[in-house]
Amino acid sequence: MTTAAPTQAPPEREAVRVRHDDLVAFAAGVFTDRGLPPDRAAEAARALCHGDLAGPRSHGLANLTRLYLPLLDEGRADPAAEPRVLADLGAAVLWDSRRALGLWAASEAMDLAAERAARHGIGLVSVRGATHLGCAGYHALRAAERGMVGLVASNCGRQRIARPPGGAVAMLGTNPLSVAAPAGEHPPFLLDMSTTAAPTGRIRQAAREGLALPEGLLCDDTGAPVTDPAAFDAGRAHLMWLGGEAGRYKGFGLGLMVEVLSALVPGAGTGPHPDALDGDGGPSGRDDDIGFFVAAIAPGALRQGADDDARELFGALLACPPTDPDAPVRYPGWHEYHRARELRLAGVPLEAELYAELAELADRTGLPFEAMREETR
């Protein structure tokens, strides 16, 4: 295939727009080049590009060369892995992902959970031996698209990034959690969050862009706030829990909840482990043997009228009188839905540095990758 040679790099911080379908096709081509079957590569690409389309950008294509290709190139993810069913009780399934690329495997797990939920009212797929799944919300939305409630939680395997409150050693990962639900004619509800005050991707994104962080995301060993994102990888700061200093036990508790659901249940690698006690206080371990908790709930299988109730619930929220007329009431997922719809038409903005990085990758792989022409923006 021919490739548009990278032209002069756009000015620093200028966004370069690329069609969403072109981004997906490019990422799918890269994954196929690394050995993924075409159907898996396409699904992994859609999951990856969701971050750039709907947010957060830190979980999008910026991770292609920084996270997913190294996983494949180092053999820590197996492009041809066939997940194995270890137990099947009908509504509940235990899966060994066998190091399949998590971007694809988490979607497969949710599809299986939704299939069982259609039959039993609920479907649970508990997964071990997994790799990074990208945006948890992308996979939760697969259930909402079928009229179900989707739940996704993932630990970070044996990678330790955050310290327990009062602790001097990192013991847990960012442990993301997501819930999605249909809302009738309104945009689907989508909560997608890390249980730390921010995911590491957001911290590193700010460092790449030379931006200061708000207080409440990082602190030093004394608990003092740190706003320099580069301090995290330099070992001078560590992640705080969701809820800030005053409410840190809430975020920590949620992080432990994710650890229980996604790792303890399937038997995946855990962050809190005697090995972690040998750490020097900073991040330790690798994100191998990640665990997933993937569930779908079908209210319509249990009772009639659930769809109407969802429409009424979210419609009432949107109708709530705002304190500021210029800032109407919205719920998690509303902004992401409208952002994604807009960018499908206008093109997805990529930072100039990321565009240049992907264009260089396109040159190496012989895949087409080109910005939108000015007149099509």
Automatic annotation (TrEMBL):
Pfam families in the record: Ldh_2 (PF02615)
Signal peptide segment: none
Recorded family membership: Belongs to the LDH2/MDH2 oxidoreductase family.
Coiled coil ranges: none
Superkingdom: Bacteria
Name of the protein in its database record: Malate/L-lactate dehydrogenase
Keywords: Oxidoreductase
KW Oxidoreductase (keyword) present: yes
Ranges annotated as spanning the membrane: none
InterPro entries (alphabetical): Mal/L-sulf/L-lact_DH-like_ah, Mal/L-sulf/L-lact_DH-like_NADP, Mal/L-sulfo/L-lacto_DH-like_sf, Malate/L-lactate_DH-like
One GO molecular-function entry: oxidoreductase activity
